Amino acid sequence: MFMASDLSDWLCRFWSGPEYKAWIARLADVALRTPTGEVAFLAALIEHAKPRRTLEIGSLFGQTSRVMAEALPEGGRLTTIDPYGGERLPDIIASWPEGLRNKTKFLPVTSGRFFSDLDHVVVAQPEELLDLVFIDGNHEFPFALFDILASADYLTPGGVLLVDNVEQAGPRLAILEFLTLNPAWRVFYGGAVTREPVFSTAGLPLGGPTWAILLSPEDIQVGTAPRKFRGKGGPGNVYKEVTLNVTGGDAEVASARFSVRSYPFDFHLTGHGWQEAHASVTCRRSDKWTADFEKPVTVERRNSDAHFVWELTLAIQCGYLLLDPTKPVLLA
Ligand SMILES: C[S@@+](CC[C@H](N)C(=O)[O-])C[C@H]1O[C@@H](n2cnc3c(N)ncnc32)[C@H](O)[C@@H]1O
Known about the structure:
Shape: globular
Largest sheet: 8 strands, mixed
Oligomer: single chain
CATH superfamily of the largest domain: Vaccinia Virus protein VP39
Structural class: alpha+beta
CATH architecture of the largest domain: 3-Layer(aba) Sandwich
Strand order of the largest sheet: 3-2-1-4-5-8-6-7
CATH class of the largest domain: Alpha Beta
Bound molecules: S-adenosylmethionine
Mean pLDDT: 90
Low-confidence stretches: none
Number of strands: 18
Strand content: 25-35%
């Protein structure tokens, strides 16, 4: 968790305070494609929250990227991605001061490619999960929804997503859809943090900002959408049951369906070593959330250097549960 739990208060205070105006004035002469007020808010948020890992989806000419990199704390990093930026961004970033260049990585890939690669990285390096994402890529609804869902899946608990261009139907509907699937999240829009935004499928309120911030809960939410957990299993480990570390939620009684898979990283080369099993459990809020797999899953011992991962996919049939962010699920 990188965010102070008072982030909602800070967002509302900053929105109507003098520092926001000062930030806008500071960026007045900077050439930007994205509205100055939005970039100023993003930069101030980065300076306040001190995220370690940040992502910009859609680099264009790297103008917002540079402001984001400038606002990062010591040790913070920005990855900016754009499938059409391979001929522009390397030269643009090479012209920046060394301190900014060293904090910034550009990848000429789509968000789809970026997140499937990140999936392998975070199994071994969970510290590569993201703290803050600026979503400004393809604004068509399916792409915008994917960018929000995928960013949320790879976000540290308490992290935030700033979504640009909510005046366009794609990002705006994507936020509304995301919030129905994720009832524990909140949205900051136009100076207030709410469960439901004041904008709708029909449009924005007159003069409303063209961006919104999605705030994740500090515990891990599992709702009706499948949620994946990953881990590394030693060869020879046998998994028979799963326990959820439930901390809250709105479901008095809930049913959960688990699917666990175990495979070595070279499965795509050998076709060997895949195991999977399923379990279901219906519990009251006060119960221990433990379920047995229909059959045990064994992480095979083989003559291979490939390391093994297990994945657990979980969905709740109605409502949502909150899980302990330090150890959300236990496999035994
Ligand atoms: C509105 S511009 C980004 C502006 C930039 N963030 C800024 O503030 O200056 C959108 C960018 O998204 C890129 N893009 C389009 N599809 C994408 C995808 N699937 N993944 C990542 N970036 C994408 C486009 O090439 C374009 O440069």
